[in-house]
Specification:
Blueprint: E1 2-5, H1 13-27, E2 35-38, H2 45-53, E3 56-59, H3 64-68, E4 76-79, H4 86-94, E5 98-101, H5 105-119, E6 123-127, H6 133-139, E7 147-150, E8 167-171, H7 177-190, E9 195-197, H8 202-215, E10 220-224, H9 230-241, E11 247-250, E12 266-271, H10 277-291, E13 294-296
Helix pairs in contact: 5-6, 8-9
Bound molecules: iron/sulfur cluster (SF4).
């Protein structure tokens, strides 16, 4: 069997910066203790476990304003790479907490865009994943009634805005380019004058395009990534839907099932942008050792 390593794969610059910041904060004796992160710093349990070992407490739950109330007075809080709403920033400031913001610059750009469009009188159709922290943070930039979350084409019928008012369509950074194009087209069919701001980040686009290209030449694609990682799940999806090839997602080497590789002559391996390289290397190493595969770049 041949194993191909898909490039680019794994950590993007936003994830590198967020993890580096959290580790630096954990090691700085001048930073007030305890140190909390509002949600997973990036969506990967291995990364979260590493931070736990450094003494950082990860708070988990769907509402980050509510999570903030679990942080005791005088403590430190880190905002994740996914960004938080202005209400969370204001509350942390009002409580006098020490704050470190690991929001990815690409997410910050989307927040700025939403603020600008709202100030210009637009309502926002935000295309994103329900119950994911990035939409919660970004949509918090708009007043209630001026923003709606749309995940699928079926959601478009429920958009409450008057077609005669200005509408901006804004996307989450880690979506599938192909699915998003279909949802944008459905929104445009209802709101032909809507302005489109495709905010899918370059790291996400490049990983998806490389995975689809590589999938054309192999029997199976293995995506290494956490179940909560939006971009890892989208990598599986684009291989299946766009390239029409089988794909499996594993969180680590322990998830690999030898039965998947029976009769398979070629496999390509990629990783979501929040997956640490050692986890992906272990998966490639297993394939080499247990299937006798030849690894190629
Ligand atoms: Fe930033 Fe994109 Fe990486 Fe998310 S996937 S952290 S938006 S570069």
């Amino acid at each position: 069997m041949d194993v191909f390593k898909i490039t680019p794969r794994g950590y993007c610059y936003g994830v590198v910066d967020a993890v580096t910041m959290a580790k630096r904060v954990a090691k700085d004796p001048a930073v007030p203790r305890p140190i909390y992160v509002l949600g997973q710093i990036v969506h990967n349990q291995h990364v979260v476990n590493d931070l736990t070992e450094l003494g950082i407490i990860t708070l988990e739950g769907p509402n980050r304003l509510a999570l903030l109330e679990q942080v005791p007075d005088g403590a430190t809080v880190i905002f994740t790479a996914h960004g938080v709403s202005p209400a969370v920033v204001e509350r942390a400031r009002a409580r006098g907490l020490t704050v470190f913001d690991a929001t990815c610059p690409d997410v910050t750009r989307t927040h700025t865009l939403i603020r600008e469009r709202i100030a210009a009188g637009y309502s926002i159709v935000y295309i994103g994943t329900k119950r994911h922290p990035e939409p919660e943070g970004a949509m918090g930039e708009a007043p209630e009634g001026r923003v709606v979350l749309v995940e699928t084409e079926a959601d478009v019928a429920g958009i409450p805005f008057d077609p005669r008012t200005p509408i901006a369509i804004v996307t989450q950074t880690t979506l599938s380019q192909w699915d998003t194009a279909a949802v944008i087209a459905a929104v445009k069919a209802r709101y032909p004058d809507a302005e489109v701001y495709n905010e899918i980040c370059r790291a996400t686009q490049l990983r998806q395009e490389a995975a689809v290209r590589a999938a054309a030449d192999v029997d199976l694609v293995v995506v290494v990534g956490d179940r909560r990682s939006n971009n890892s799940n989208r990598l599986v999806e684009v291989v299946q839907k766009v390239a029409g090839k089988p794909a499996v997602r594993v969180e680590s080497v322990e998830d690999l099932n030898p039965a998947w590789f029976a009769g398979v002559r070629s496999v390509a391996v990629t990783a979501g942008s929040s997956t640490p390289s050692p986890i992906t290397r272990a998966v490639i190493g297993w394939l080499e050792q247990f299937t006798g595969a030849t690894v190629r770049s």
